[in-house]
Amino acid sequence: MSLQTWLLFVTTMFFVSATPGPNMLLTMTHGIHYGVRRTLMTCFGLMSALGLIMMGSVAGLGALLATSELLFSIVKYAGALYLVYLGVKTWRSLPQPVAELSEDKSGKHGPWALYRRGFLVAMSNPKAFIFFTALFPQFMNAHQPQGPQLAILAATFYLIESSWQLTYAGSGARLARWLNSARRLRMVNRFSGGAFVGAGVLLTGLSRQ
C-alpha cells in the first residue's frame, strides 16, 4: 500500500466517520448524561461491535449479506426494531439531573449497560458489513500481502472512528451544564429518541445495493 493510497483512505474515513449517525448520536447523548469518562464504556461497546463487523466482513459475512436477501432482511429488521425500541425508551424516559446520572453507576446506568447499548447500536446496521467488504479492497494492493494491509486499514479506521466518538462525547459533556434543567433534558430525550426512531425507520428502507 502506497502512502498516497493510505492518505486517501484517511481522508475518506475522516469524513465518513464524522457524519452524524446512530453511533455518534449515542456518544453525544451519553456524553450529555454521563460525561466523557463514563461514555468511554459506550465507545468500547461501539468499537467492539465494529471490530466484529470488520472481521465478519473479512471472513465473508459481508459478501453473504450482499447476496442473500433473506439474511440481509433479517439482520436489517432486527437492527431497525432495536433502534426504534431504544428511541421510544429514550423519548419516554423521565428527565433526570445530569449530576445524578453521572454518579449513578448501577443498573441501567452502569458500565456494562452502557457498553451493551453501544455494542447493540453499532451491530444494528447490516449495511456496515457490506460497507467494509466493499471499502477495504479499494485501498488494497492485490499484489502485496493482504494481512499487513488489512491491519493498517483497521488500525487507521479505529483511530479515526474513536477520535470522532470522543469528540461527540466531549461536545455532549460541554452542553451538559446548559442542558441541566428538566425542560431542556426532556427536549434532549425527545430529540435523541426521535432521531433513533427515525434511524430505525430509515434502516428498513436499506437495500443491499
Automatic annotation (TrEMBL):
The organism's place on the tree of life at top rank: Bacteria
InterPro entries xrefs: LeuE-type
Gene Ontology cellular-component terms listed: plasma membrane
Predominant place of localization: membrane
GO MF annotation terms: homoserine transmembrane transporter activity
Subcellular location: Cell membrane
Membrane-spanning segments: 6-28, 40-64, 70-88, 187-206
Record membrane topology: Multi-pass membrane protein
UniProt keyword list: Cell membrane, Membrane, Transmembrane, Transmembrane helix
Keyword Signal in record: no
Family stated for the protein in its record: Belongs to the Rht family.
Record protein name field: Amino acid transporter
